[in-house]
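Tip: read the tokens left to right.
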């Protein structure tokens, strides 16, 4: 008879499963076996459970699915705190010349910093949108993949691109863009080399031209064809600012949603970042096609872009997840703070009923998994799903008088992570990373940030 798989038991904790029924247990348990969730339920674990290698007393804690980050730009970890009082276009114009000087060691350090910050705060699956590839800069996507593998997080790397330089009417400087052909060749090579479609995959690759104001129509069309030929997902920015809307109407004679649909960029295999300036017809188009949204409330506020119509998107059935966005426009770099910020900005925009704590938690977990095409694997605590989960400490001073554990997590101060598992493997213990030395990550990123500033200043 085969030996039972090693089991991890988490018990005596509040449980928010974020399943289809939003099942919660005031005191319950989760059993992990073989990298999967074996059982979730109220009360104590079943009697006679064998092969238990670890038993965690979760008294005073809440267990939830791991957080899923749906949009980021890791390299921006090196340029935090710059262009502090700019809108998106001015911010990009100020920072493109700096970003165009990045190289492989810089991106590796930035990815480690970005990932470490998110993982320490409960992220178990992270997507990144990297679209700046200076000539002779080394293997930038490979640097990110290496960092994610070392930190033990599930990673969705999207190979971005820009081929519309300033001289052709785009926003980025000419020396920061690739040719259409080079971008497509490199994107296909990245998919072929790295994409793993398996159920428990730690690495998937998407196709991700940057935005309507930095990419030609031809690149958008061919990139969509490439992604569908390879069976991978598509990602880009959409409807982020009023300036983008004006750009699309002046250049293409239509708004961003209609333009992107005309190039093949709406569908169940597509998710777009931001989607702030959308009218009723845009929302209906996303609902009709199943196009997903990465909602980035802190970045949208930092750049004064506006408030995305997330309540309307959710009512229409559009998949919505949360994103940190690049840390040059969200310097905290943490996704768990986006739960609170999403709730607050939508109440400011739409009143006290616009969003509640459980909806915010769903955005950061199941919603994100749906946007990334992984809702069958992760995003909720259900038997058979991947053992990606977080045990939040809620018995300290900051949460001591909030009886509702989900409200404590979302509305209270950032909760410490007592334990975070990815596929049943610990990546955080007692608020500290298990897979990396945080102090070393910080030192390395600081040195590379200074080097980037010096290189850019000499250019």
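Filled-in amino acids:
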């Amino acid at each position: 008879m085969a030996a039972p798989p090693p089991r991890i038991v988490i018990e005596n904790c509040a449980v928010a499963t974020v399943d289809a029924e939003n099942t919660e247990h005031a005191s319950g348990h989760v059993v992990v076996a073989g990298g999967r969730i074996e059982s979730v339920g109220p009360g104590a674990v079943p009697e006679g459970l064998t092969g238990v290698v670890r038993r965690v007393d979760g008294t005073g804690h809440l267990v939830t699915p791991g957080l899923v980050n749906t949009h980021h730009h890791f390299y921006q970890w090196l340029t935090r705190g710059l262009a502090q009082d700019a809108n998106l276009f001015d911010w990009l114009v100020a920072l493109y010349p700096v970003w165009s000087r990045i190289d492989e060691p810089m991106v590796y350090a930035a990815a480690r910093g970005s990932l470490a910050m998110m993982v320490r705060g409960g992220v178990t699956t992270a997507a990144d949108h990297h679209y700046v590839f200076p000539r002779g800069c080394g293997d930038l996507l490979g640097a990110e993949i290496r960092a994610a593998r070392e930190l033990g997080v599930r990673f969705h790397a999207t190979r971005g691109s820009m081929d519309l330089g300033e001289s052709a009417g785009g926003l980025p400087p000419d020396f920061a863009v690739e040719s259409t052909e080079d971008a497509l060749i490199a994107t296909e090579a990245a998919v072929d080399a790295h994409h793993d479609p398996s159920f428990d995959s730690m690495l998937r690759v998407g196709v991700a031209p940057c935005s309507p104001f930095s990419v030609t129509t031809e690149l958008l069309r061919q990139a969509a064809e490439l992604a569908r030929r390879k069976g991978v997902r598509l990602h880009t920015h959409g409807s982020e600012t009023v300036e983008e809307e004006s750009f699309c109407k002046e250049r293409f004679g239509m708004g961003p949603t209609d333009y992107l649909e005309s190039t093949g960029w709406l569908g169940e295999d597509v998710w777009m970042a931001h989607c702030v300036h959308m009218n009723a017809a845009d929302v209906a188009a996303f609902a009709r096609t199943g196009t997903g949204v990465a909602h980035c409330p802190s970045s949208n506020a930092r750049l004064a872009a506006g408030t995305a119509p997330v309540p309307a998107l959710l009512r229409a059935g559009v998949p919505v997840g949360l994103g940190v966005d690049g840390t040059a426009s969200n310097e905290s770099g943490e996704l768990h703070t986006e739960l609170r910020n999403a709730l607050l900005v939508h109440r400011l925009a739409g009143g006290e009923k616009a969003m509640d704590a459980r909806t915010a938690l769903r955005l950061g977990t199941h919603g994100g998994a749906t946007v990334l095409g992984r809702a069958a694997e992760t995003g909720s605590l259900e038997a058979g799903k991947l053992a990606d989960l977080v045990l939040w400490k809620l018995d300290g001073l900051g949460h001591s008088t909030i009886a509702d554990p989900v409200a404590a997590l979302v509305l209270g101060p950032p909760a410490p992570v007592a334990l975070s598992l990815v596929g049943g493997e610990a990546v955080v213990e007692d608020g500290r990373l298990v897979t990396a030395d945080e102090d070393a990550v910080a030192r390395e990123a600081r040195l590379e940030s200074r080097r980037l500033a010096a290189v850019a200043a000499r250019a």
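The chain has a mean pLDDT of 96. The radius of gyration is 21 Å.
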